[in-house]
Task: structure prediction
Amino acid sequence: MSLTQGMKAKQLLAYFQSKADQDAREAKARGDLVCWSASVAPPEFCVTMGIAMIYPETHSAGIGARKGAMDMLEVADRKGYNIDCCSYGRVNMGYMECLKEAAITGVKPEVLVNSPAADVPLPDLVITCNNICNTLLKWYENLAAELDIPCIIIDVPFNHTMPIPEYAKAYIADQFRNAISQLEVICGRPFDWKKFKEVRDQTQRSVYHWNRIAAMSQYKPSPLNGFDLFNYMALIVACRSLDYAEITFKAFADELEANLKAGIYAFKGAEKTRFQWEGIAVWPHLGHTFKAMKGLGSIMTGTAYPALWDLHYDANDESLHSMAEAYTRIYINTCLENKVEVLMNIMEKGKVDGTVYHLNRSCKLMSFLNVETAEVIKERNGLPYVSFDGDQTDPRVFSPAQFDTRVQALVEMMEANMAAAE
Amino acid sequence: MSKVEAILSQLKDIAANPKKAMDDYKAETGKGAVGIMPLYAPEEMIHATGYLPMGIWGAQGKTISKARTYLPAFACSIMQQVMELQCEGAYDDLSAVLFSVPCDTLKCLSQKWKGTSPVIVFTHPQNRGLEAANQFLVTEYELVKKQLESILDVQITNVALENSIAIYNENRAVMREFVKVAADYPQVIDAVSRHAVFKARQFMLKEKHTELVKELIAEVKAMPVQPWDGKKVVVTGILLEPNELLEIFNEFKIAIVDDDLAQESRQIRVDVVNGEDGPLYRMARAWQQMYGCSVATDTKKGRGKMLINKTFQTGADAIIVAMMKFCDPEEWDYPVMYREFEEKGIKNLMIEVDQEVSSFEQVKTRLQSFVEML
Result:
């Protein structure tokens, strides 16, 4: 009997998250390859080659959520990483330095012994993709240099003009083929094209069920608490090319559908307003941000961040142009007009009443267009918005008091609009 | 005034008054200017239109006020200044602005130009070892070319483009020679003058710049090389300004014997090679050949090694990292370079470059103590 039989989605999430790390530890112990990967880099090639995958962004977010970021940030700080650098990256460089020291000396540094970080092994190679930022190029350059390991790059050029042109897809698809050649050399065996097709099919099934979950926020009241997407994200990032993600997401989507039928909603009867969250979660203060909104009766029913992994493509397209398009159309890799369209679509689907913008100290790409994005959207749909200062993993930037004041103002505006409409 | 002084004075005037340089050019030729955002652009294409390519590298000491509405405080210092100037309409006389997007900040800035000039955006490919990357960039350049032709109502012919490429290659070669001459004659070309020679090339036709720099080099080389009783450094970063900061280098007799500044030597590092391929393809290849820059992806991380080599080749006493405030590509390069410098026993110092700052006492103290240590 399967170990996971009868498990609820939440149990499956915990089980598979931990299993993915365990898989990597076991692979390392066997002498098999482990790859560290950027969160929206295509895993299809490495998974086809049977390489175990670890996702530093998810790993860092986990460290942040478990209040362990500061120790790793301090290690990175000592190595010369400026506080201006992305905190996911700094936490990861700190963690990597600890692992490296342990590997060289045979002794785990104390900071690592005491860390709540999930135990993951050092990589034998890394793969990165700049569809969510160019920081991921710099960060992975450093990982490759400091560990003296191969770095596979999938460069998806910024789409300053939409729709995505064919020549960009051709360049990306060529890099896919190049990545495959690199992997053949690294692994010392030919690429298994038949398995590659199966992995792409698997990825599409995971994405399908991921989208089923996100679609549940269209209902009013919503059976889905949008913050749950932040929790379940770990698997769409780390396991989308394995059945781990598909099994978990299918279970969760089925549960939500059953709840909807039974009239069970996320906020029971307390859903008063609905909001869009724009930006990365504030992992060290995830509980505070959720509770503050819940306390105000406001539910998140739209967020583009987890939707980054809506990586649907035609798995039968052997030119790989469809897959290339999926990996480059990420809304923050496109022009302002497209970004606005994507967010407005999310707002419409989630029937939101307003938006909370996270001005993220760690993420320039997800912050420097916030003013323009918010202004254009407000002009078009008239919905109110607020912005707060935060950081995805550095706990020092976020101020609970500022967040509370800002979101109270938003909720007041949203409620006033609703009252006026009635 | 000696000939050397006269040429340096002329270049310093141009470097300090870009607006005047542009207005003079317009009056003289009847043609306008096209702005070029950092860091790299196919400038030869603008030159081929007959318009004056103008570098946009911020300003010094401007208090940021209007830009605060559009950019949080953690945007890099240079883009804060550029945004402030956009809001003030300082760039509105430009016929177009050419925008590359090799970092996250520039991607965003390319979407929010507050001035009135039309903006042309293009993306550099970052998987630079591949032929597919060249093909991608050629197409991007073709689109830039079409937009320039349409906005400026000119046709960019291959003949004009080849001529511009030759002019730029010559200018780059002459500037590479100038770097060596400046290193040999720090008594004649001090830090302020050295910078002015580089900065002026952002605001004038390259053939005219080449002519002046050639003359300057000839005059300087006619003098005997004197022993230098100060220290020698290699500097790296986005830029090293303003003159008040460079005057500290002069005061403590710190000669800049080579640089890896984006505003200076990175602009002249690689040429567009000759060959049978078309000009746009060869210009794309130049991006592939670029090295040692924080926004040109390099998984081998060669920048630190390049700087170490420069230090050995020039006999420099140290490397000074001029860190542009809040420039994350540069900040990400620093820890690896720092480790490499330390491993090789190369003395190094990081100073912060903040274009909004107008007081330099702190950096003066740091440079003074550093020099005493060398």
Notes: The mean pLDDT of chain A is 97. The two ends of chain A are 55 Å apart (CA to CA).
